[in-house]
Amino acid sequence: LAQCFVADETAERALHGLEACERALIAPLFGAWTETALKFIAEMHSNPSYVSSVLKHIRLLASEGALSRIPAGIDSASEERSTAAVRIARALVAHASFLRPLEDDTAVQLFSDADDIAAALVDAAPEAAEDVSAALDGLRAVVADQGAESSVRGIFVVLHEMRKQDATCRLPHEIATWSPLAFEDWLYEHDDVEALNLVDVALEAWEHAGAPK
Predict the structure, then answer these.
(1) CA-CA distance, 1 to 116, in Å (whole number)?
(2) Spatial contact of 90 and 34, defined as CB atoms under 8 Å apart
């Protein structure tokens, strides 16, 4: 019995070791993929056809490239794939909150782009379908005052409201001369309380510049 117990314990340690090795090998692949996807999402500020690059890149996760050849059943791969998909969905909403007020046809196109990106993400990571949908539900709350604001981070609503009040209002990243990509990454790493401290600075600058009363 003692020998069986030792054997079981050794097997369990070996299994944990294999899982750690899998994660160590897989995580950098998904990390690099996500960083590139975030760069393509950020192009919405300068490139109207950004969505084609985003969709092509997402397909690398679904049916092409090294990531698609990771064997099914590896839990760490499933977790990384889900995390990557949700990260991209949330980044899309974040960047939309930085946009100046949109004309109706531009907003419609943004929602169409978001639907295409959501479908591609769910195809690539079916296990993340619910979380991707929840993240993108916030897009209409941010851009068009539609839907429940509870589905989106409050800071995104605040940032877009600043834009709607005055399209010339500079957001925190513009005052700090950060790129939209860098600001979205910062927001991902910090909570709303920290983000609102930056907003306070932006509001003070806005008031000093002659904000509309």
Answers:
(1) 58
(2) no
Q: Name the band, by pLDDT with cuts 50, 70 and 90, for residue 79.
A: confident
- Contact assessment for residue 162 and residue 135, using Cβ atoms and an 8 Å cutoff: no
pLDDT of residue 15: 44
The span from the CA of 40 to the CA of 36, in Å, is 6
- Interval 33-56: pLDDT, tens: 899 999 999 999 999 899 999 999
Whether the model pTM is above 0.85: no
Alpha-carbon gap, residue 205 to 92, rounded angstroms = 27
Angle, in degrees to the nearest 10, between helices 129-143 and 104-124: 170
Residues 6+ away with beta carbon under 8 Å from 44? 50, 51, 92, 95, 96, 99
Which range, of 39-48, 58-67, 75-84, averages the lowest pLDDT? 58-67
Output the CA torsion sign for 112, 116, 131, 179: negative
Instruction: Find all residues with CB under 8 Å of 56, minimum gap 6, and list them.
Output: none
Neighbours of 21 (CB within 10 A): 11
pLDDT in tens, 180-206: 999 999 999 999 889 988 888 888 887
- Burial category of 199 from C-beta neighbours within 10 Å (exposed 0-12, middle 13-18, buried 19 and up): middle
Whole-angstrom distance, CA of residue 141 vs CA of residue 134: 12
